[in-house]
Amino acid sequence: MAGRSRDMATMRDVAQRAGVSLATVSFAINKTKPVAPSTRERIEAAMLELNYKPNAIARALASRRTRIIALLFPVLEHNLDGTALKFFTSAAAEAQRRGYNLILWPSGTDAARIDQLVHSGLIDGVVVMEVYLHDERVERLRELGIPFTLIGRTAEPRGISYVDVNFEGLVATAMHHLRELGHRRIGIVFGEGGDPLISEYGPVVRTRDAYLAAIADTEDEPLMFSCDQSSAAGRRLVPDILRQAPDISALLLLNEHAASGIVSGLRAQGIGVPESVSVVGLGSSIEVAEAIDPQISLYESPSEELGRRGVEDLIDVLEGTRSAPGASLVDCVFVDFGSIAPAHS
Known about the structure:
six-stranded parallel β-sheet, six-stranded mixed β-sheet, 434 Repressor (Amino-terminal Domain), 42% helix, Rossmann fold, single chain, alpha/beta
């Protein structure tokens, strides 16, 4: 030991310092066999004194676990924006807290790259984001038998661990708020660019259905619009909105990237927010809402909680501490920036 640098200590050095066998140190580090608490304490003290860092690859080979989990995000179909980054950072922090590493696996919404990921042997489990009602990735993960959880929900999520935004409650709350202020001509803008009536994307479908259910309770006409996720697309959409509904008094936005364009497009038509039209974001981020002039009120996405709980649920499955799949819905929180006002007469 005399000539050995402290940062180059080996498992054998730890065993000698703790007065145990090399095998016992291996069992304690890799958790492959029970080790008496007093023995584990001596081993941990020796590791600390020697500044011993277990080799991650060796640990993986010994335990047959890599302690790496993958976060699947379809970058071609969805923007890698500030809201998404909140998911990633909170998920990575939770993984690290639990002794795991998290990798971002950019993929499509089909199952094409799932086999490559799983058969690489690099990962213990998967967290799936941006979930569709009938999601090929989910079906393939089930077939392969790899542990996974969802941030989102399929059409039939029974038997799957998931955490998701409570879109149904979100829309019901927003619609009730606007109706209490006298609004009847309430439109909604989606962010996929296509027809929201045929979308398979979970957040769009659940928001759409909740909106139509709220409209069905009255004699109001549903006013649904969609555009690409950009400010320019939002601005281009405004004339279409006004042609279809010149008397519109409120807009719900499930498209935060088009929000600034919609607000500026309304202003270009001489329509003030909120003097003539109230605007509110659904599942948006404060950073985006604050950057718009005027700032828009929003129901803030619980991105950080969703990322954390998605990883938490997966690790509970991996470590056998969860006996049944978790199923959680998380509410958005209303943040008032003054873009909602009583309906104009």
